Amino acid sequence: MSVILAIESSCDDTSVAICNNGKITANVIANQTIHQNYGGVIPELASRVHQQNIVPAVEQALINANVKKQDISAVAFTQGPGLLGSLLVGVSFAKSFALGLNIPLISVNHMHAHILAHFIDDPKPNFPFLCLTVSGGHTQIVLVKSYFDMEIIGETLDDAAGEAFDKTAKILQLPYPGGPLIDRHAQKGNPLAYKFPEPQIAGLNFSFSGFKTSILYFIRKEEKENPNFIEENLDDICASVQFSIIKILLNKLKKAAVEYQINEIAIAGGVSANSGLRKSLQETAVELGWKVYIPAFQYCTDNAGMVAIAGYQKYLVNDFASQNISPLPRMEF
Ligand code: KG4
Ligand code: ZN
Fold this sequence. Notes:
Number of strands: 10
Radius of gyration: 20 Å
Strand order of the largest sheet: 3-2-1-4-5
Number of domains: 2
CATH superfamily of the largest domain: ATPase, nucleotide binding domain
CATH class of the largest domain: Alpha Beta
Mean pLDDT: 97
Shape: globular
Distance between the termini: 30 Å
Bound molecules: 5'-O-[(R)-(carboxyoxy)(hydroxy)phosphoryl]adenosine, zinc ion
CATH topology of the largest domain: Nucleotidyltransferase, domain 5
Number of helices: 9
CATH architecture of the largest domain: 2-Layer Sandwich
Strand content: 15-25%
Helix content: 40-55%
């Protein structure tokens, strides 16, 4: 019998989850809206809001899961990667909570947790599988050999896919985070209206910084001829940008599947909430005979449910952390 309380505070969402014998029975996510005023996450503000949110989020999670503090077997937390100030709130809280209850601590790598979110609900992938992990800070193709043995076989050399969405949104004067808004506009637009160049990067790596610049120059050029260009063509611009990002991601994923001879394919991270990516992946699966795994929406963007399930796997093998543990903003994979 085990009850894991998990805390996620790596960026701008404060989340607390409960995992009861391998089942997620609470996943409370307190979003921080304050950053919308600034067009991006302000680290100092994020850590202050985590401090305000964390105790109410823990209390709510205990209520939702119908669990008492004394029932908790261990506390899992995101150690990194992420923003130092944000991580510090979660790590300090987890340490004090575990110390107060005299129970073990479990440290979790945020990127592993995104991947292990696939073990929350059925169907679960079979090892080994490939996971395209696409978030605001990372773009990776990971060869997942077991719960604990994962290897990055491709990654971005500069910007992440989520940044490509968010920075495009900024160019289009859409509020932060722009990814979900681009997704919404794209659903009404023509994906073939405009063409953007696909970066020519060797192997399984990605690059999005030149892509983003090409969008900026394209918009500037069009606005010279028509100052209302964005307003009049927003849906088509969003659909075309999204189409290009998905094409870049899926082309590398197809390459990886051939190279590694694997047809169990998963996606994870905030960008895996994108409706176009989810649909294109399903279509590619039919075309190439892949078995694909797409997480439920609540487990795509940052959430403690994924930290809880990752923590549960470590709990089963007694992999505990010491009370001296510190946050690791640049935690290795
Ligand atoms: O995993 P996540 O919540 O946080 C990080 O670990 O970075 O990912 C956040 C990223 C942001 O860039 C956000 O714009 C993007 O995921 N995102 C989306 C969608 N929902 C979230 N991008 C495209 N379409 C979406 N529907
Ligand atoms: Zn994340």
